[in-house]
Amino acid sequence: MKTTIIGRHMTVGEDQKALVAKKLAKFDKFFGSDAEAYVTFAYKRKLEIIEISITYNGILFRSEEESTTFQNALDEAVESLERQIRKNKTRLEKRLRPTAFEYDEDDLHDEDEDEGTFEIRTKTFPFKPMSAEEAIMQMELLGHQFFVFANSDDNEATCVVYRRKDGAYGLLMPE
Questions:
Q1: Each residue of 68-120: pLDDT tens digit?
Q2: Which of 19, 27, 99, 142 is deepest in the core (most CB within 10 A)?
Q3: pTM of the full predicted structure?
Q4: 82 and 167 share a domain?
Q5: Beta bridge partners of 63
Q6: Residue 108 has what pLDDT?
Q7: How far apart are CA 39 and CA 173, in angstroms?
């Protein structure tokens, strides 16, 4: 796996790079050599944050964890990625390399695995053209984290507004 390590407003030491390589080596059994991992180190309000994104065959796995130390945040992020893989094991076997899940069950912690289908709750709502500002207002009124709408400013393309972790808003538009 090709690993890229980035430090935001900081320099990542060689010992931290070695620890990241060691921790991410456990994912080699799931992904081929052309998988790419991006690890970002950052500080925020006296907390140390690690974000790990792994891309392989068009599938993106992402985890962002914050803790008092980078090592704790790294451990939590790796566990989170491992849970994502275990939870979606059956679905992923079809997309990852064929032998990705040939391992001893003792290698991973015991946890309930969701190998069935997704439980989908269907909800309908009026879909009318509106501006991004109107969509944000509607999202706030509903108390949701995101809102799908037809953008009246962009030839009624289907767009999504969402609330970011930092409190700002984002707009997803199709190309």
A1: 999 999 999 999 988 887 777 766 666 555 555 554 455 544 444 455 677 88
A2: 27
A3: 0.60
A4: no
A5: 52
A6: 47
A7: 27
Residue 120 lies in a domain: no
Per-residue model confidence (pLDDT) at position 39: 93
Q: 12 and 70, same structural domain?
A: yes
For residue 123, being part of any structural domain is answered with no
Q: Using pLDDT thresholds of 50, 70 and 90, give the confidence band for residue 128.
A: confident
Residue identified by tokens 């010992």 is 15
The 146-151 sheet, strands edge to edge? 129-130, 146-151, 157-163, 169-172
Query: Does a structural domain hold residue 99?
Result: yes
- Residues paired with 10 in a beta bridge: none
DSSP labels, 105-171: GGGS-------SPPP---------EE-HHHHHHHHHHHT-SEEEEEETTTTTEEEEEEE-TTS-EEE
What is the residue range of 147's domain?
129-172
Structure token pair of residue 21: 């390589």
